[in-house]
Amino acid sequence: MIPGQVIEGRHEPLVSKELFLAVHNIREEKRSQGFVHNKENDNLPLKVFTQCDKCKQPLTGYLVKKKGLYCYKCSTKGCKVKRSAKAMHDLFRNLLKIFPNWKGRV
Ligand SMILES: [Zn+2]
């Protein structure tokens, strides 16, 4: 075993974990600043945390009652960006795979 390799092997997961925590902290920070005005919805965990692709505003979420499906949408007037919650969560799950130390529920 070459000592340098061991250090390098340990280095990467550590950075990834830090990145994950950074993401988590941004969420916490936004919450403490009062960005989240609605009660946290377990079905829409990415609400406010994610941004609109077009105008970079935080996405809000809602339930399509007819279909029983949750959606994220942009809150900017006239922007009309919408994403199904399922598609967003799949994307986010894939994103979390780059953090090897992340073993949480997703
Ligand atoms: Zn938008």
Description:
The structure is a single chain. The protein has 106 residues and is α+β, with helices and mostly antiparallel strands. It has one domain. The protein is 40% helix and 14% strand. The protein contains two helices and three strands, in the order H-E-E-E-H. Strands 1-2-3 form a three-stranded antiparallel beta sheet. Strand 2 (69-74) and strand 3 form a beta hairpin. The chain starts with a helix and ends in a 10-residue tail after the last helix. The model is unreliable at 5-12 (pLDDT under 50). Bound molecules: zinc ion. Residues 52, 54-55, 57, 74, 76, 79, 81 line the site of zinc ion.
Break the fold down into its secondary structure elements and pairings:
Blueprint: H1 3-32, E1 59-64, E2 69-74, E3 82-84, H2 85-96
Antiparallel strand pairs: 1-2, 2-3
The structure holds zinc ion.
Instruction: Count helical runs.
Output: 2
Largest sheet: spatial strand order = 1-2-3
Report the span from N to C terminus: 36 Å
Q: Biggest sheet, open or closed, and with what strands and sense? A: 3 strands, antiparallel
Element string (H = helix, E = strand)? HEEEH
Total discrete domains:
1
DSSP, total strands:
3
Structural class of the secondary structure composition?
alpha+beta
Shape: globular
Mean pLDDT: 75
Helix content bin: 25-40%
pLDDT < 50 stretches: 5-12
Which small compounds were modeled alongside the protein?
Answer: zinc ion
Beta-strand fraction estimate? 5-15%
Radius of gyration: 17 Å
In short, what is this structure?
The chain has one domain. 40% of the residues lie in helices and 14% in strands.
